[in-house]
Amino acid sequence: MGQERHDETAVTQDSVTGEEISSTTIPPSTPSKDDTKPPKRNAFTELRSPSKKRPGSKESSVHSVPKASPALTTFNGRAGLGAYTHAPESFPASRVISYDDNFVVINDLYPKSSLHLLLLPRQPEKQLLHPFKALQDTAFLTTIQEEVRKLKPFVAKELQRRYSKFSSKDQKREEAIENAMDGVKELDDASLPPGRDWSKEVVAGIHTHPSMSHLHIHILSRDRHSECMRHRKHYNSFATPFLVDVDEFPLTKEEMRRRMKGGFLERDLVCWRCGRNFGNKFARLKVHLEEEFAEWKKE
Fold first, then answer.
1. CA–CA gap between residue 210 and residue 163 (Å, rounded)
2. In what order do the strands lie in the sheet with 217-221?
3. Within a 10 A sphere around the Cβ of 15, how many other Cβ atoms?
4. Long-range contacts, stretch 260-263, CB < 8 angstroms, 24+ apart
5. Which H or E element spans position 238?
6. Which residue of 162, 209, 229, 263 lies most exposed, with the fewest beta carbons within 10 A?
């Protein structure tokens, strides 16, 4: 068969709740008043700029995407992400950050970190494959890894925009720049404090057993700070080998078997930052993550 759907094991290893496996309806062609408002400027504004290649551009067309069928407006349950690859132009910038013929980038509807994006490939022959199967295609894997590398700097820049004012490293650099601007000493970038490398705070990976049918890559900040982080499986799906880093591919057959075997979601809850073990006490971990988030921003 051309498209292999995820095996039933994925259902038993869901890391999400029923409410998160919700249908997605493509909005009507007439936008609402909120949709017509210009989006707030942030680090992703450049991705939405008119200068970027848009769908229909011959230069960006590597894989042809079928035109949306007017009758198909709702993608049910686990197929919910299909709405975004089917008609990304129908969604507001608050949901769809950018898109072209090959990829759609969206804000995760149920983020598990303070910044959480999904990269959705639009190639029809790959969309419904299990990620391990899809990424056996080395050419396709290369396009995924290249796209992730392009997106990471934007995510890092957005983290810097949001949290730089809390960061001791960034504040030292800003103070040095201000002193130089005031004429205290000559401005020499090489002698300035380096500031914080926010790119190191960005993770990109794929779940071993995705809960949604359409292929998607998680790109998120490391903090695991979100109201949508509500239980043990949520946390462990991003804090254990259940999440496979994009750069770990291609996987060997032995590694694929090890990952598919599972058990990661039932592991003890271990703080991603300090390594403290909370056993199965998610409520205690949740309080601790709030404290760690505040300390993480200060680095």
1. 30
2. 96-99, 103-107, 116-121, 217-221, 202-207, 243-245
3. 24
4. 260/9, 260/132, 260/208, 260/209, 262/9, 262/13, 262/208, 262/209
5. helix 232-239
6. 263
Give, in order, the Cα–Cα distances in Å from 120 to each of 107, 116, 128, 237. 11, 13, 11, 19
- Summarize pLDDT for 181-237 with one digit per residue, the tens: 766 556 666 778 889 999 999 999 999 999 999 999 999 999 999 999 999 999 999
Cα gap 285→133, rounded to integer Å = 34
pLDDT at 60: 36
pLDDT in tens, 49-62: 544 444 333 333 33
Structure tokens, 139: 């050419």
pTM of the full predicted structure?
A: 0.84
Strands 202-207 and 217-221: antiparallel
Residue 155 tokens, joined: 């995510």
Identify residue 128 by its one-letter amino acid code: L
